[in-house]
Amino acid sequence: MTYVCRHEPARRPYYAMKIRVVSPAGSIRQRVVEEGVKTLREWGHDVSIAPHALDTYGRYAGTPQDRAQDIMDALRDPEVDLIWATRGGYGCMQILDNIPVELVREAGKPIVGYSDITALHALWFKAGVQSLHAPMMKHLGDDPTHRTTRTLREVIAYYETHHAWPPKQNNLFVREWNAEHPDRTIEADQLTWVGGNLSVLSGLHGTPYDYDYRDKVLFIEDISESPYKIDRMMQQLRLMGVFGQIRALVCGHFTGCDEDPLMPVRLWDNIRWIVSPYDIPVQMGAPIGHETENYPVVTG
User: Fold this and answer.
1) 288 contacts 250 by C-beta, under 8 angstroms
2) Sorting pLDDT into bands at 50, 70 and 90, what band is 59?
3) What is the rounded distance in angstroms from the CA atom of residue 249 to the CA atom of residue 246?
4) Domains of the chain by start residue, with CATH
5) How far apart are the first and last CA of the chain?
6) What is the band of 146 on the pLDDT scale with cuts at 50, 70, 90?
7) How far is Cα of residue 60 from the mean position of the Cα atoms in its chain?
8) The pTM is what?
């Protein structure tokens, strides 16, 4: 199925929004950042790179203090409208409690990214600020004309014009379900969406940054995890009572999660089986996650 997203055009052509590029997690090659920034600048935006975004501290882009400081500086800077992560990897859990929730709330600036950035989306949710689960620098640099990237450009342009995300953006991910189940449609634009990378979500359970799942649409994706580990994380959600609270489950890509011949059922069938007692809509194969088809999701 081909996903195409069209939004109300901006009042004038794409024009400069001030974007700060940060590296909250893993280190990244300078060339990858430069190519991604080039795409954002070609869209007409004013892009600056945080002081530690290109640092290397072991597997991380700087010390936890440096990575947190870059984000706090961007939140405090009146010349920054939006914060964009360079990549995921691992590291956001180290800095969550170094970034005051009140600062995120007062600044009201969205953050863009996915994968490990799921942890920051949870912080933004706690602060009551919507964020955008969407591609980062490598995708922007490698695929600047891909339909996913074009959709992302439209979503960012809409935000620039309206200072809000397109209200029907998340309908993109439930069209197939709604077409097949007209009697049980998911009103995506009327519900709050939470989630992201399943492994990161699992790490947030029991912390002050875990989501309130009540009456939300939960979306999940993952990469390079064994099916039995995905089962364990799904069982954790079940034991927490999450599936009895949410309004729908949207499953994106499970990239590199190769089927395990020792598991009695295939990965997607297992997810359906775990959720089946709760009689909620379950949309499988949404274009979200660690693949080229990674469309932006408005979170919070």
Assistant:
1) yes
2) very high
3) 7
4) 18-162 (3.40.50.10740), 169-299 (3.50.30.60)
5) 27
6) very high
7) 20
8) 0.94
Residue 8 has pLDDT above 50, yes or no: no
In this structure, the number of other CB atoms found within 10 A of the CB of residue 76 comes to: 12
Could you tell me the two tokens for 192? 């709050």
- What would the two tokens of residue 7 be? 């939004």
Torsion sign over Cα 125, 127, 131, 137: negative
Q: How confident is the model at residue 16 (pLDDT cuts 50, 70, 90)?
A: confident
Give the pLDDT mean for 265-280.
Answer: 96
Q: 167-202 pLDDT, tens per residue?
A: 999 999 999 999 999 999 999 999 999 999 999 999
Residue type, 76: R
3-state DSSP of the chain = CCCCCCCCCCCCCCCCCEEEEECCCECCCHHHHHHHHHHHHHCCCEEEECCCCCCCECCECCCHHHHHHHHHHHHHCCCCCEEEECCCCCCHHHCHHHCCHHHHHHHCCCEEECHHHHHHHHHHHHHCCCEEECCCHHHHHHCCCCHHHHHHHHHHHHHHHHCCCCCCHHHHHCHHHHHHCCCCCCCHHHCEEEEEEHHHHHHHCCCCCCCCCCCEEEEEEEECCCHHHHHHHHHHHHHHCHHHCCCEEEEEEEECCCCCCCCCCCHHHHHHHHHHHHCCCEECCCCCCCCCCCCCEEEC
Mean of pLDDT values over 158-173:
95
Question: In 3D, which of 146, 127, 141, 162 has the Cα closest to residue 47?
Answer: 141
